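Before a colleague's protein record goes any further, I have to sign it off. What it holds is a sequence and that sequence's fold in token form. My question to you is simply how this chain folds and whether the tokens agree. Thanks in advance; the entry in question is below:
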Amino acid sequence: MKKLLLTMAAGLILGLTFAPEAAAQLSDEEYNYVTMDLRGILNLTMTTNPQVDFVFKNIQEYQQGITRFNATQLEVDATLAWDLFVYASTDNWTQVEAYSTNGNNVLPAEILEMRSSVTSTALVNLNDFSSLLGLTNSAVAAGVPTAATQFLAGEFGTAAGQSFDPGTAAANPDTHQFRLDMRLVPGIPATFASSGVDLSLLGNNSTFAQAGYYYLEVVYSLVEDL
């Protein structure tokens, strides 16, 4: 018993001797302040010639019209949900040169018909050949669309299904690559009846278009889902 007590006492003394040294550890620390800035990316690329020419030089072309398949090709790369809409920057075509004194030189944007390869669920779309809306009819104001605007992708509103998902054109050709056909059908006389436009209500009230050289600017706008 005496030997056991001496052993316990010795162990207690050793514990008191070494415990403070074991607890007194030196340390030092440095810190990183790590930030992340995720910038939203919306890239719209036109991979075709921006100028699309329609030259009507014979009776057959007037009667049957001219269709430019894949006239414009667009690609979208986006890191966030997006919408794509289209409209004419003016209400009417701009006449650069007149070839005649007869006919109406006020031709509305709507005589141009367009069709998209990507299906849109928007109320106003270009899923089939449809007249391109001029600036006033498109209801686009200061670059901001409404439900009356022609959408190629997505639609006005932020509810589920009203936008297209993030992604790249290379990985999502069916939804992020657009092939747009364009068509003009003057007819004889050149009334562009297939577009549903009544030229007699415009300009000098003439019912047919004046021969001449015209141009129209078409705007494609890629925006964050709105």
About this structure: The chain has four helices and ten strands. The first helix runs from residue 2 to 23.
